[in-house]
Specification:
This protein has 67 residues and is mostly helical. The chain has one domain. Helices cover 43% and strands 0% of the residues. It is built from 3 helices and no strands. The longest helix has 17 residues.
Length: 67
């Protein structure tokens, strides 16, 4: 699943939280696995755009930062 060693990084700034979220959701597109982020089976993107009911995440924390 992981090609290299897992690295953790503390996210201290709200702006960076948004960048990381965007990066994670767009990775399957960059890898040419899907055309849209909501098509990726393991993505929670649909919960952020309110297409799916939230189960594992709390999208309002990220969405409040985006405002």
């Amino acid at each position: 699943m992981f090609q290299s060693r897992y690295n953790a990084e503390i996210i201290e700034k709200d702006k960076y939280v948004l960048e990381v979220s965007r990066y994670i959701h767009l990775n399957p597109i960059r890898a040419q696995m899907v055309r849209n982020p909501e098509e990726y089976k393991w993505s929670r993107y649909g919960m952020y755009i309110r297409d799916k009911k939230e189960d594992l995440i709390t999208s309002n924390k990220i969405l409040l930062i985006a405002r």
